[in-house]
From TrEMBL, chains A, B:
InterPro entries: Alpha/beta_knot_MTases, MRM3-like_sub_bind, Ribosomal_eL30-like_sf, rRNA_Methyltransferase, SpoU_MeTrfase, tRNA_m1G_MTases_N. It comes from Vibrio amylolyticus. Gene3D superfamilies: 3.30.1330.30, 3.40.1280.10. One of its GO terms (biological process) is methylation. Belongs to the class IV-like SAM-binding methyltransferase superfamily. RNA methyltransferase TrmH family. Residues 103-236 form the tRNA/rRNA methyltransferase SpoU type domain. Pfam families: MRM3-like_sub_bind, SpoU_methylase. This is RNA methyltransferase. GO terms for molecular function: RNA binding; RNA methyltransferase activity. PANTHER family: RRNA METHYLTRANSFERASE 3 (PTHR43191), RRNA METHYLTRANSFERASE 3, MITOCHONDRIAL (PTHR43191:SF2). The lineage of its organism: Bacteria, Pseudomonadati, Pseudomonadota, Gammaproteobacteria, Vibrionales. Keywords: Methyltransferase, Transferase. Residues 5-86 form the MRM3-like substrate binding domain.
Amino acid sequence: MISKNQLKTLRALGQKKQRKALGLFLVQGEKNVLELVGSNLNTKQIFATSEFLSEHKDLLNGFDCIDASLDELTKASTLKSNNAAIAIVETPNMDVPTAKGTMIALDGVSDPGNLGTIIRVADWYGIKHIIASTDCADPYNPKTISATMGSFARVSVSLVDLPSYLEASNLPVYGAFLEGDSVHQTTFKPEGILLMGSESHGVREAASCYVTDKVTIPSFGGAESLNVAMATGIILDNMKRQHTN
Amino acid sequence: MISKNQLKTLRALGQKKQRKALGLFLVQGEKNVLELVGSNLNTKQIFATSEFLSEHKDLLNGFDCIDASLDELTKASTLKSNNAAIAIVETPNMDVPTAKGTMIALDGVSDPGNLGTIIRVADWYGIKHIIASTDCADPYNPKTISATMGSFARVSVSLVDLPSYLEASNLPVYGAFLEGDSVHQTTFKPEGILLMGSESHGVREAASCYVTDKVTIPSFGGAESLNVAMATGIILDNMKRQHTN
């Protein structure tokens, strides 16, 4: 059963301010919680249905697990469905990673669902680090975590002063611009930063001045733009294709 | 002002059953309504703020426009935001297209947001027709239309008996399977059908037996799968790259 105090904490963690004050965040959904328990993150508590707890008994050994009904869990959750398991997790203390290998940099990508989808596709292509401007979506927003489908445990997101980070890096910066060169014809270096802007504002001036190569996805139809997560995935596929075959 | 009867119709069109009975659907949001008025679709009425109506006066000439407050529009809308304009549109009578050129076939893709994102990326790559199994999301669901970002006006979606359609087509069928050959190494023919399954069930047996080539997106990290819309976009990019350079 979820106590009144526990319910209060779970609800509070739906808010960014409370997540920051408590140094905690929520991981919701079966797939995400299973990825969590296999990761290095510090899990404080897991609330789950008795079915989930008994099915994954061995994996959950040593964790502080609280048995709750699906009804209780749905009331505590910030999501409408997929609430058989909810975990409270410590926000990790991470150093900002050195610019190395293939990285993604995000400028003003404020939708948590898009950020989560970008984390998932980054993980697919083996990218370990995402650098994001401080006005990007919160990587610990429950909607972000859900959209990652477990990849939150393998990809770090650091909110930084993006222009300073790009200035200090010695890597080529591939910026996505509608007027860039086709990614089908671009020769990507083995290491580099893929810089994506928001759908409404693109890459802003303060960051765009560090772009070494402007790239675009060639269009053959009428759509004016692609969703930023979709565009990130398509460009990553082109970058990886050149260095793995 | 939106009358009680008009409000009733707008609200009814949030439901699939009512859309079917009335032969009408909703187009919501400024960008989508502007794409609509430039298309061949038959628009019955446009409800919009006076700002929207005066800003686009020339484009809207000849349309039945009703001035409404943003408050009224938000109450009538199925969406939480982006409600400056809402249109009621006649569902077009479409013939199922002949299998020709590059097409997309969807097997059990039931999320309307995913379907809308697939329509948008199809439009980007110049695909005109999508064939979908009858248990796919409704192409006229307001969430589908919103996610297309205007591309609903340029891409047709036909719900059909998918296995029969594939059986009758003379095109190669490229099916997305985790165990397929890498799309980086696949030689795509200039015409063909890209067949995508749902994230949970993949391409089902009844359709998979018509697949001529199993393809996959090579993975370099820990993510187990990609979102179906993302995967569609990445494979389309690989198909188009070979036939346009």
